[in-house]
# Entry
Amino acid sequence: MSKELGEIEYNENEYLNYMANYEELEKGLGKTELAIIDLIDEENDQLDDKNEQKDESEKYLEKEQIEAKYVVYKIKEMMEKNFQIQDKKIGVRNLQYKDIVILLRSPGKIGSIYENELLQAGIPVYSEASNEYLDTIEIQTITNVLKILDNPTDDIAFVSCLRSTIGGFTDNELVQIRLVDRYISFYDSFKKFLEEESCELVNKVKNFLDMISKWRKISEYLSVSELIWQIYIDTGYYNYVGLMVNGSIRQSNLRMLLERAKSYEKTSFKGLYNFIRFIDKMKLGKNDYSSAKVIGENEDVVRIMSIHKSKGLEFPVVFLSSTSKQINLEDLKDNILINQNIGLGPDYINYERKIKYSTAAKFAIKLKSKEDSISEEMRVLYVALTRAREKLIITGISNNYQKQIEKKKEQLSIYDDSNNKISPLLIKNNISYLDWFELVLLKSNKMKELIDFEVVNKREIIKDNIQSEEIINNEKIDFSKYSNYTQIEENIDWKYPNLISTTLPIKSSVSAIKELSKNDYEYEVGIANVKPEFLEENSDKITSKEKGTLVHLVLQKIDLRKTYNKDELKNFLDELLAKKIINQKQRDNINENKILEFLNSDFEEGIRNAIEIHREKPFCTKISAKNLLGIEKDEDILVQGIIDLYYIDSQNRVILVDYKTDYVEKGKEQELVEKYKSQLELYRIALEKALKKTIYKTYIYSIYLGKPLEL
# Structure
């Protein structure tokens, strides 16, 4: 290609020399291919007329999708046929995905179309101009979940969640639910279906509604980032996208959404509603961020990049696509044009006569700018044509190939040049890469020998694509006809032999272990039920559990070696209040009589005369699940807790004591013992391991009854 528009006449020799050198260096490794996709429907010439009413951008996207499908087809074909390339290190080898690059003049949205088509075909892909992460399927799914938590009557978001892997509903199931009442929201249809129907689908509907209800409830006290992470955990969606094509990028996008939520929470805006509005404004304002970049240089993926970014690089196989897109000359439509040599070129506006037209200066600048743009595009095209080391495949779209070719033949005959050059006027009037390729092919016979040229009708591409989808989506495949059917069935029905080990808790508190039974090994880790201080201050009453905590606090702080009367105990509690260890409300709710009864009891006298007294001692020990839960699997569980009190008496014996403030009916002391027997047993095992001594006696001291109960 010539480098100056003054010589815009197509210089065939430059490209021919490049092609000749290419063939000389890489003999037998393949030639350049040019494929033009013809959109005209020969069986129905009215097709394009029907599409005329569509928005131009919509029509363009449809064309790009067809071209992207063709590129996918060519990549699959080359991979299936084990296309050979020359590797500088190991010699000739089979083509890999990482050897392929798709070059686009301006990737943007077009790059996203190619990326989606490749992903749908199961081809790993990496695009530097990837979809904004808010537009990726994984982010849209999670944001739709957030939307229905904020407003479940949002039918679009609700149905999107139902059809995603989170909901898991089929189209037939949604139709069945919708037919209950088609005049209300989908969410209300779900609730109505739950009340009126009794089929198997009811359980699936109930589980989904319960899940939504749970998230809506916890969203009242969780931050947005914590809520999003909880959704990831409950649905397993984070792990699911990791198994998809480009799973690492998808997981990074989900983590990016989490980070966006954390950043949002640092602002003055709070809550799920404001976060959803924030995301929507980011989309409208184009303030989005690119998809997460986690692909390295050696990853086996097809790369999509701009021609500019490919400068200086070489790739075994290059697809130069979207060549039918015209050169961007939108800047020439501005009201004022500027050129550093010519100067200012404004429009002339006559307000009295209400007319506007371009000035001579603007015409001059427009012509010069167009020439400069075309010259620059020719240099960019030259860069694209020299990126391939083994094979170059050029693709483009034609609305009616025969009609366009006839038109160009006519133009070439009018502007014939005996010097085998293409007139600059033709270059200016045909402003796409594909136009230039067609002009060259029509002008040069030698070029036809160097380029494998093919015209593909869009019906062939669509037909092949439909057949591929039918094979993938066929749900009625008879697997029994395959010779290894039995092995497949065994693999599907296989169960992990150590399944119990996966359900046992690795670490647990004593109170959580107490709730586990022999037949129930799973437990849920919840959020601590701790009231904020402002609620404690304003509440008139405290709960029984809080009263029990106060008793434990007092017995932890008080000197058990002293005897107390009522006044002395009162002074001690006032001292705790003065030191702000307790507040006034807590001070008023401490039962002084019960504490005094313990301090003056015969049981406390044994503590008072002990050699050593130890209170509120934390422990953490491994205990066999076989002994703990009575299961066959011998696994260790890390158990942690706090021992209220143990002391060593004058005879060097260890006595274990645990305070309980539970209400106990007279004559039912044994029920209290049975309730906490397993808990005290854990304390005993842990203490014996730590002290390497046998526990002499174990007591539950009932504050309510005012007496010890020996285990």
Q: What stands out?
A: The chain has three domains: 5-128+299-327+358-457, 133-284, 509-515+523-710.
